[in-house]
């Protein structure tokens, strides 16, 4: 997030507007910002730069039309978003006070611009939160997709096993019917084997009786 926002005239370092968190631990960075502004007045310095502070914070500055726009923010804050913020800050400040910068003689003449700075700051910090939430949602969606794919793979694999079991069941059913027919045939043969002597004796007796009474 943004800890300090400073707008100053580039040729002499005159501060024009500022927004600073009410945190005593940030006071040394305000001193560092003034030192950086004194160096920016030298023509050899880049118009856009990032300066490490050997702390959890970093300075980004952007110079345009003789005005330096500087921000102190957390190191993990997107550099691209920080410079986008500075460019937007430049456009809004230039639109409202650009024509008055050259004639300003006292520090923080445009301190009334702080409310605009705070509003813009919140919009970019909220945007960062939105990006974080979007990234988190995307990660969660990817996890869900991976879980879904894994579940689908498991279902497909289970389906193959079920198909295999179904084929085996059909095969066993066919074999059981075959065995049942064979068992019935064997049972019939066994029954006939038991009854055949009785039938043979009965036939002989009937034939004997027939001829006996016929004579």
UniProtKB/TrEMBL annotation:
Its main location: endoplasmic reticulum. Residues 6-117 form the Longin domain. The keyword Cell division does not apply. This is Vesicle-trafficking protein SEC22b. It is found in: Endoplasmic reticulum membrane; Endoplasmic reticulum-Golgi intermediate compartment membrane; Golgi apparatus membrane. Keywords: Coiled coil, Endoplasmic reticulum, ER-Golgi transport, Golgi apparatus, Membrane, Protein transport, Transmembrane, Transmembrane helix, Transport. Belongs to the synaptobrevin family. The keyword Nucleus does not apply. GO terms for molecular function: SNAP receptor activity. One of its GO terms (biological process) is retrograde vesicle-mediated transport, Golgi to endoplasmic reticulum. It holds the Pfam family Longin. Residues 133-189 form the V-SNARE coiled-coil homology domain. It is a single-pass type IV membrane protein. The chain crosses the membrane at residues 195-213. It comes from Salpingoeca rosetta (strain ATCC 50818 / BSB-021). InterPro entries: Longin-like_dom_sf, Longin_dom, Sec22, Synaptobrevin-like, V_SNARE_CC.
